[in-house]
Amino acid sequence: MTDRNSIIGKVDWPLLLMYFALVIIGWLSIYSAGMSEGHHAIYDMSQFCGKQMMWIGISIGVGFVILLLDAKVFDAFAYWIYAGVVLMLVVVLVYGTATKGATSWIDLGGGVKLQPSEFAKLGTALALASFLGRQDADLTNRKTRIPVYGILLLPAALVLLQHDAGSAIVFTSFIFVLYREGMPGAGAVMLLAVGAVAVFVLTLVWSKTTMLIVIGSLFALTLAYYLLHKKKRLWRMVGVYAFFVALVFCVDFAFYEVLEDHQRTRIEVLLGLKDDPKGAGYNLHQSQIAIGSGGFWGKGFLQGTQTKYDFVPEQHTDFIFCTIGEEGGFKGTFLVILLYIGLLVRIIQMAERQKLAFSRIYGYSIAGILFVHIAINIGMTIGLVPVIGIPLPFMSYGGSSLLAFTIMLAIFLKQDANRLKIL
Amino acid sequence: MKYSNRNLSQRHYVIIGVFAAVGLVFLLKLFSLQVLDKELKISADNNVLRYVTQYPARGKVFDRNGKLLVYNEAVYDLMVVPGQVKDIDTAEFCRLLKITPESFHERITKAKKYSRIKASTFVSQVSKEDYAHIGEILYRYPGFYFQIRTIRHYPKAIAAHTLGDIGEVNRDEMDADPYYKMGDYVGKSGIEKFYEKELRGKKGLKVVLVDVHNREKGSYLNGALDSLPVPGKDLYLGLDADLQAYGEQLMHGKIGSIVAIEPKTGQILAFVTSPTYDPNLLVGRVRGENYNALLQDPSKPLLNRAISGTYPPGSTFKMVNGLIALQSGSIVPATQFHCNGPSSTPIKCTHHHGPSPDLANAIENSCNPYFYEAFKATINNPKFGGIKKGYEYWYQKTQDLGLGHTFNTDIPYEKSGNIPTGAYYDKMYLGSWNSVTIRSLGIGQGEILVTPLQLANIAATIANEGYYYPPHLIRAFGDSTAIPEKMTTRMETGIEQRHFQVIKAGMKSVFEGSHGTARGSKIPGITAGGKTGTAQNPHGDNHSIFIAFSPVEDPKIALSIIIENGGYGSTWAAPIASLMMEKYIKGYTERPAVEERMMKGVINYDIKKKKQ
What we know:
The complex is a heterodimer.
Chain A: H1 13-33, H2 48-68, H3 72-95, E1 97-99, E2 102-109, E3 112-114, H4 116-132, H5 142-161, H6 165-170, H7 174-180, H8 186-205, H9 208-228, H10 234-258, H11 261-270, H12 281-293, H13 320-352, H14 357-381, H15 399-417
Antiparallel strand pairs in A: 1-2, 2-3
Helix pairs in contact in A: 1-2, 1-13, 2-15, 3-4, 3-5, 4-5, 4-14, 4-15, 7-8, 7-14, 8-10, 9-10, 12-13, 13-14, 14-15
Chain B: H1 6-36, E1 48-54, E2 61-62, E3 68-80, H2 90-97, H3 101-114, E4 120-126, H4 128-137, E5 144-153, H5 160-163, E6 166-168, H6 171-176, E7 185-187, H7 190-194, H8 196-200, E8 204-210, E9 216-219, E10 235-237, H9 241-250, E11 256-262, E12 267-274, H10 287-296, H11 305-308, H12 318-327, H13 359-365, H14 368-379, H15 387-400, H16 422-428, H17 452-464, E13 467-468, E14 474-477, E15 491-492, H18 497-512, E16 529-535, E17 543-550, E18 557-563, H19 573-586, H20 592-600, H21 607-611
Parallel strand pairs in B: 2-10
Antiparallel strand pairs in B: 1-8, 2-3, 3-4, 3-5, 6-7, 8-9, 10-14, 11-12, 11-18, 13-15, 16-17, 17-18
Helix pairs in contact in B: 9-19, 12-14, 13-18
């Protein structure tokens, strides 16, 4: 450690390189997706790619400043940052401008709009890490759990009030960090959630009666197993089945009363219950055609036809993965998914090597947030998840999301670089 | 956290496992989409998908007897996708299409402005010959293709205003309804506009693969993404094509309108406005040019006078005043008012009859003082306690009779006419007004304005003895779906049937009485009731007005006729009305002399002078 002041030597280069790779692939894809309006230079500021370049510059600048700051400020100011983003969410509810049904933007003037929900995730991660990082925090104790619920639910509820269901779903990602930090039942909740999604989908695809018969049969089998092997906690198993049965009866209500029309249609289209290639199914069909048309090798950079010409809507934002699929082919999507999984695994590994609970918890938080974004976004473009409008981290066009994700990552890099100073 | 032990640290494997599992699922799905699924491949040689709209056939329109009024003819539109146009021989292309290079440039710029990637119409309605010729060599012009669609054709060339026309959508219409794309046709007036949603059907979509040589290589994914067009509904109108054509002949050379209604249903039998035009003028490529010519015509042939012309009803309004006076108990049928003939005050009489007519007499002779007195007796009736309340009652009853408001059925651009409110007079005369101030209302002059449609509806209401159905054009949809409830809802006037019977008897004697103002137009073998009107016109000769129904016992037709500057009601309007009723009821007419006089009669309008 000859160069004490140089952050360059201490920063985690594998993570940083994966970040740069994703940002650059995203930028080139945005450039390619914008080619339908004629040829422009990649730095043309009137185009999405030019603006994205500006945001990349801003993000890197801000990230660099963060690396130069004292690592302790983030823990120290966590609650202030949290309060700030919550305030922004309240402001957007009052003064926000609506885009595509969601009131989630603050117009800063000069054509610059800010989406506070992107920063809300960051603020929440910091506040949670700061709270759980305290010496006396104990997730097995209700005195710890209740404030945790508060920290998570407040911004989630505010985002939901903006009708931004996609961003609200991202808040479920904190289950990963709670599980890692040993909250009782977190693992069970994850399993139950998977089961509940399965019950919901199957009830819609089959029918209520079929589903009850299936659950009944499974219950009989499990019961027989429990009795034969004299398993304990029989009541808990019965409770789980009762929950699933109740869920079957709630599906209709949830589906027809709770969900909004467009959300319902998207689910119906995904499950093949409704065929609507020109309407709600349009995005799904088009994005699958685009990705599928890429084949193994792809059509080559700038050679795509389906991701230009507006066949795929939102192709530079939420559907940017289509361009990669079409032009890069399977080798391109393979590389991008590998980069993402590599990035996530690297964050988890780094989180585990932290000495400070704050840094570890923060690392898990951002890994969770990134994972849910990636899973929903890519899942949506390849037809595994209903269409939910959230960006693909580091790649989708959009200043707010790129800046927020970059800041998230930079703070973690700083914590990690600083870990050796902690005794 | 103190309890952070080894056990919890192991959990990071679970989380990494979850991440990796999801990544693996994604890779499998991507492998299936990108490598295994051959259907989604569009071969690498730059093929593109073309989204060809399948236009549905627009619904046809028939008259009440199933005679065809409007049908479709196939035409070919040359479409362009600007983003796909490259390396074409512009000069050659212009020569083929018979357009100038400037026009080519203009069209392509317009299409680019709309969208570089969505198709827009480059040349609409190319002739069949050109289509055959150009179609063969179109592969030389990437980005261009032909689209078959239909235009309207009107075999009988009647009822232009009623049927309306279709034209290309404009910006506002596209913004209002995303169904429409540039170059689509949409109903612009008449029933084409009102029943647009029913007539248009639903567009279908065909996705075809097009290779780099602009050749279609067949349907994509075996048509999995295609949808068939749904044809529009046919419309059956209440209109009688023969009667309509006859009415248009009778109105030749005159300005005005005929509205005939079937009283029992409110269906419009004939909807004539004159001057009119051949609806075939407003289709296809010639539409714009012809439309402008009609727009410039000083006799305003595009104006539908039957709904947009508002006229003082003149003496035809006496029926309304008679009915309201009877219903309010202000007069009884035997009530007599004194008439001094031309020296009566405050309103003089223009007819010669006995000095003390009763109600039936007064209708037969169209006695002005009688109806002024009846109106005065109504609004001054002590039971209302003051003229303002009396007037309020009178006003309300005119509304119940279908005046002063539109019917809002299926006739676009209907005017509401005008029945002045009490508040209007309060403002006008600063609160001090009485029956003498507003005496003109008693004989249908003054501020009162009605449309020919409203007048015809009054005739139908009298024929029905107390109720009407809002006048409308539609009779049935081709697929037997119900017509809007509003048009089949019986509207009650709240005036008793016995009062209508008195009025009806009086109107019968207009044809049959010895002094009847339409005695010269009596129809052989058929009973009829009517009332002449002569609306004073400050701009020139009086308008000739007539309302009538027939047969009196069981009315099948009720109508209103207005001949602008036609003088007395009995001169033009009454004979034309009698011919229309005779034609409709008998199917033929027996008075060739009257018929010839009406058809050949031309009123000399000095339109240029009138314009100044």
